[in-house]
Amino acid sequence: MESSCGKGFELFCFLLILFVNHVFCIEGGTNFNWNSTVTGSAHPSPLPVETSFKFPSPLPVIPLDGRNFGKGKIDLGDLEVIQVSISASTSQRVWTTYEGGPDSMGISIFEPINLPPGFFTLGFYAQPNNRLLFGWVLVA
């Protein structure tokens, strides 16, 4: 028997996919074909989303002042959250379509992985396939 939490998560994922489909179909002016969704298969040519964004030079180091600035965690009462970057090493693609969206290249949804101990995923990251992979999610 499936738990109510599992059913709620499935409903959340379904609604997220419907929302993303709606947003990208309106923006791209195309109709979405559910039969064209592909999970884990190769596209004829590499898409920009398959390449992680890289800064042209290293980021500067911000000195710690001995307090909480720059520690990377925010305490929201009893809930501690951190920001996790989305890249090939910190996420896995869980859903892809190659139609619709900007430039009719489709979209991909990524799940954060390798989270710090004690932190859990609050949501997934969605991005059009016509851009280099670059984004953030909050985990708690």
UniProtKB/TrEMBL annotation:
Annotated keywords: Signal
Record lineage: Eukaryota, Viridiplantae, Streptophyta, Embryophyta, Tracheophyta
Signal peptide per UniProt: 1-25
The protein, known as: Legume lectin domain-containing protein
Pfam families according to UniProt: Vps62
InterPro entries xref list: Vps62
